[in-house]
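Structure in, sequence out. Go:
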């Protein structure tokens, strides 16, 4: 049997960032419980790491096989590789094969967009974006879909990718510049999507109305934000189980004795269902590690859109 192959171009054509965010939010509203999702399996391999992420609902099942190859960018290849196999939920017959990196570049910003919808101040206009890779472009598009951004400050290690992202943002009509970590003091929204293993900025300088989103790591010893931010903020995670297993941004402050698991304000589902509202005067912090149910929710919506065309 030849499976329909939905490549990166097809995925971009079939589903935009707002619709992807709607798919994630709909999955939570329909009662999906992220706490029960199977953990990500990571296997060290000579080139880096091989990740296996399965998930299932009554309508669909699926599994993403992703490779993380740190040496690829030097070869002119993407750091993240892989594919997503989508199956019928009732029969487990394969129904489609999707480009894995393109799916990840859509679903991770979609999850962040759901958090931003519920956490960020409605008139958020200034985004400080750490990183200039594919996730940075996806997160810019997702943030623009849910908030009226007018300013962008790009903070990146390498000047060329930073300039390219700034130019892209200017073509979208934003007042965009490259800057440094101190720009967070003037931000309404901060998004971190980097490979950093240590904090990117001083969390004590983040304003009380600012929302910070960090999605760059899923390792217990790696983090993009510091303890100062975590202890000041209303902290929201995808699932407590995943955060306390993989989120270094949370686990490092716990290990330092500066934070407790019970200090977590709640989850993405709590936000969507209205059980959690951010506290005025405190920064809001969403930490995402990426979960398999999110891939499935977005892949299923892409498949439905493909069938409808």
């Amino acid at each position: 049997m030849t499976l329909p192959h939905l490549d990166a171009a097809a995925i971009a054509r079939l589903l935009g960032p707002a619709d992807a965010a709607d798919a994630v939010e709909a999955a939570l509203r329909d009662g999906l419980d992220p706490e029960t999702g199977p953990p990500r399996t990571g296997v060290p391999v000579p080139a880096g790491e091989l990740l296996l992420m399965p998930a299932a609902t009554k309508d669909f099942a699926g599994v993403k096989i992703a490779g993380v190859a740190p040496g690829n960018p030097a070869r002119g290849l993407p750091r993240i590789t892989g594919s997503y196999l989508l199956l019928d939920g009732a029969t487990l017959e394969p129904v489609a094969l999707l480009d894995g990196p393109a799916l990840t570049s859509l679903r991770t910003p979609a999850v962040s967009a759901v958090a931003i919808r519920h956490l960020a101040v409605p008139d958020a206009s200034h985004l400080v974006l750490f990183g200039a890779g594919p996730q940075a472009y996806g997160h810019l598009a997702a943030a623009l879909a849910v908030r009226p951004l007018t300013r962008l400050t790009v903070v990146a290690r390498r000047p060329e990718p930073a300039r390219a992202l700034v130019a892209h943002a200017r073509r979208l009509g934003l007042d965009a510049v490259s800057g440094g970590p101190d720009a967070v003091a003037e931000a309404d929204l901060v998004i971190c999507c980097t490979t950093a293993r240590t904090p990117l900025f001083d969390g004590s300088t983040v304003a009380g109305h600012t929302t910070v989103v960090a999605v760059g790591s899923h390792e217990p010893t790696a983090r993009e934000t510091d303890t100062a931010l975590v202890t000041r903020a209303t902290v929201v995670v995808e699932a407590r189980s995943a955060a306390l297993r993989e989120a270094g941004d949370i686990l490092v402050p716990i290990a330092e004795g500066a934070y407790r698991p019970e200090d977590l304000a709640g989850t993405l589902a709590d936000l969507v269902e209205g059980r959690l509202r951010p506290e005025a005067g405190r920064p809001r912090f969403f930490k995402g590690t990426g979960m398999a149910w999110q891939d499935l929710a977005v892949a299923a919506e892409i498949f439905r859109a493909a069938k409808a065309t």
